[in-house]
Amino acid sequence: MAVTGLLHDWTDGDEAALAELLPIVDGELRRLARRQMRRERPDHTLQTSALINEAYLRLGGVRRMHWRNRSHFLAMAARLMRRVLVDHARSRGYLKRGGAARKVSLDEAADVAVEPDRDFVALDAALTALEAIDARKSRVVELRFFGGLTVRETADVLGVSSDTVVRDWRLAKAWLLRALNGRSTS
């Protein structure tokens, strides 16, 4: 409840609320960042602390958003961290050079045994394509996979039932599996 109040105060222009909010959510943001960095290749040049700092900077740019609650805030933080990692990969020309990139299925990536050299730029492109077809399913993947939110937290953020999240998660994984394996998704 305190987080929601601070988010609303920050939205209303109270910069002191942000200063009070960040220490409260710092542990959760670090958990999100570590989760995302575990999926990166071992020689990744962006460190977890740099990812968090960049997310903090980008969060400052979205403060006029109508924050609903802590889960909504963490979902946005996860989205911003994803953007930072994708932007970083693109700026290094990772795909252009080929790197150690390889396609990965969402089922493989969602498993506990996550290898660090996954190609998240390809996953991002597939998610963008899915978003054009079904934005909610894309958000479910983003919240569950990138944000680490539970089914219940995802349902709260999206304003749908847990059953809808489970169904969307299953269908989105199947769609992304086809997209990442290069098969037609239409």
Can you give keywords for this protein?
186 residues; mainly alpha
What does this structure look like?
The chain has 186 residues and is mostly helical. The radius of gyration is 17 Å and the shape is globular. The model is unreliable at 111-118 (pLDDT under 50). The protein has one domain. 70% of the residues lie in helices and 0% in strands.
Structure described in brief:
This protein has 186 residues and is an all-alpha fold. 70% of the residues lie in helices and 0% in strands. The chain contains ten helices and no strands.
Structural class by sheet pairing and helices:
mainly alpha
User: What is the arithmetic mean of pLDDT?
Assistant: 79
What is the count of helical runs?
10
Number of domains: 1
Report strand %.
Answer: under 5%
Q: What percent of residues adopt helix (DSSP H or I)?
A: over 70%
Give me the strand/helix succession. HHHHHHHHHH
Shape descriptor reads globular
Round the Cα radius of gyration to an integer and report it.
17 Å
Count of individual beta strands: 0
Largest sheet: none
The low-pLDDT segments are 111-118
What is the CA–CA distance across the termini?
A: 43 Å
